[in-house]
Amino acid sequence: MATAPRPRTSTREPEEIGRRLTAWLGRRLPGARVTGITTPASNGMSSETLLFDIEHPRTPLRACALRLAADPAAYTVFPTYDMPRQHRVMSLVAEYTDLPVPRVQWLEIDPEPLGAPFFVMARAEGRVPPDVMPYTYEGNWLHAATDAERAGLEEESIGLLARLHDQFPAKEAEFLLPEGTGSPLRRHVEAQRAYYDWVVAGLSRSPLIERAFGRLEELWPADEGPAVLNWGDARIGNVVYDGFEPVAVLDWEMAALAPREVDLGWTVYLHRFFQDLTVGFGQPGLPDFLRRDAVERRYAELTGHTPRDMEFHTLYAALRHAIVMLRIAYRQAHFGEVAVPADPDGLILHHASLAAMVQGTYW
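The structure assignment produced for this chain is given below.
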């Protein structure tokens, strides 16, 4: 992933989207024109993000970002893309917390204008820790920072989770619960099982992922704790920083009502994913950054809640990430970018660390 060409994420042309977006915008702001449309260098693997400016004398929103549901022709990462849900989550987070969430503007649920539903939000200026090449690699701004600067960014980033979990009223997030019965955590895990079944439908199943689901049951928390609004894709690669201060919290499509530790486990493991990848390519990475013990300690200091059952929650994060990686690999195979090996577990970049977690030897 770190050295191979970036997998295809879309079959759409930004210029064509720009023309269609101008036509759509003209019906809301007569005389407005879309200019400078670009795709961010770190554009995600699921919904698409486009950056653009609005030229119009009376709009207060000039620097914009467009969040567009995934192109069905691009072998999507997720089965559905609920743009009204994302728009609602971001609006509510802005209403109930002091997190720096970009101001959301227009929501378009009709797929006709751009080929899929979308919404427009204010664009934040700053820099994002990259995924490719990962921020753990030498040569990028975060790796080149001082220990003190990285420590400050780490504390501020953990603070985002602490404030979200503490400030947002859980009752306002009940619409995020998947259908079914049982606790929020049980519903969350069952939704992941359903997602895995969708990923492997008609294809090879992963013995490792299925063992990981079994290990989750063995580690299931005796006390799951209260459910709170989870950011979902809680990682520094989804934050825009001005210097080392967060100025925008992005990508809310995986938001959920779940125990606090679901977010924390994702934060801890997604850094370890990049760190392990970097070490595997012969670089030291950032071994003292976003360490599990430091994340847990700082979160407890900020909230008064000591994270529990983190072996379960980091395993769950690695399992969820494995399902996404498997889907991306099958998509690469669909476009002829990779060949599918006889053992589908080989398509999971972090299969060794996931196997170690299942065996209880990783930490």
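Interim note for the steering committee: Strands lie at 33-38, 48-55, 63-68, 104-108, 118-122, 227-230, 239-242, 245-249, 256-259. The first helix runs from residue 14 to 26.
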